[in-house]
Design brief:
five-stranded mixed β-sheet; Glutaredoxin; two-stranded antiparallel sheet
């Protein structure tokens, strides 16, 4: 029964019954605090789910950087969220430095935010509309990566299309897509 409820909750945005994302405060890889609602004046907030060592995330960093650069002047805020129990603040910082990640990676060491967002895999991108704090889109950044290989370039830019919809005040045509990535293991209880 519990599994059914969790699955149902993950489909609520698709069914049009999205609940607002609750505010949270987490520290980034440099020890700086961040809250979600501090970005209420932004046009959109984009969060990619990060995990140290995940090859899908590592391969998506350049695409995420390009997306951030594309929307930088349009009041869109970009960050990452790490909800892996095995990752520590020091190793998240090391991963950021190794892969040139110069945006905040928020460390969800209690996994409370990850659980509230019904996260399952890393590399998932969440596009949040700050006017409602609802997740307008959750899924992959684009279609460039598949398991064990990747295309030279993307044909479909799902996250960019979702951001454009939010900026235009429109509903996202496909608000949920399955994401390839590494599983996030949540503590029992």
């Amino acid at each position: 029964m519990v599994r059914f409820i969790v699955i149902l909750l993950s489909f609520l945005p698709i069914l049009g019954w999205a609940e607002p994302v609750k505010n949270f405060e987490l520290f980034d890889q440099y020890g700086q605090p961040h809250t979600l609602y501090e970005h209420s004046k932004k046009a959109a907030v984009v969060i990619m789910i990060q995990g140290n060592g995940c090859p899908i995330v590592r391969n998506a960093v350049t695409d995420y950087r390009s997306l951030r650069d594309q929307y930088r002047s349009r009041k869109v805020h970009f960050m990452m969220l790490n909800a892996n129990l095995q990752d520590q603040a020091s190793t998240i910082l090391e991963e950021a430095e190794t892969y040139g990640i110069d945006w905040p990676i928020l460390h969800d060491k209690t996994q409370s935010v990850g659980k509230s967002l019904n996260l399952i895999r890393t590399a998932e991108v969440l596009v949040i509309d700050p006017t409602t704090w609802e997740i307008a889109y959750r899924g992959p950044i684009n279609d460039r990566q598949v398991y064990e290989r990747q295309k030279a370039s993307a044909s479909n830019h799902f996250a960019a299309a979702a951001i454009d919809s939010v900026l235009g005040g429109e509903s996202v045509a496909v608000p949920h897509r399955d994401t390839l990535g590494c599983l996030i293991y949540f503590a029992k209880g």
